[in-house]
Design a protein that fits this description.
Helix content is 0%, strand content 28%. It is mainly β. The strands form 2 sheets. Strands 3-4-5 form a 3-stranded antiparallel sheet, with no helix packed on it. A hairpin with a 6-residue loop joins strand 1 (10-11) and strand 2 (18-19). It is globular, with a radius of gyration of 13 Å.
C-alpha cells in the first residue's frame, strides 16, 4: 500500500517541523451506528510523519 501525502506544508503542533502530512482514513466514525456504511461521508486524518500525532482532519 502506498503512502499518500498532503499537498500543503503544515507546521506540526508537537514537533514544530514544517511537514507534508500523511493522509489516513479515519476508521472511528462517530455517526456510524448499526447498518451498513455507505462511504459517502469519508473523513481523513492528517498525521505528522515524524512524531505520528494527528495534525487535523479532512
Amino acid at each position: 500500500m502506498r503512502k499518500r501525502f498532503g499537498d500543503k506544508e503544515v507546521e506540526c503542533r508537537n514537533c514544530h517541523k514544517k511537514v507534508k502530512p500523511l493522509i489516513k482514513l479515519n476508521r472511528a466514525k462517530s455517526d456510524f451506528i448499526g447498518g451498513r456504511y455507505t462511504g459517502t461521508d469519508k473523513k481523513y486524518w492528517l498525521i505528522c510523519p515524524y512524531c505520528k500525532s494527528v495534525i487535523g482532519a479532512k
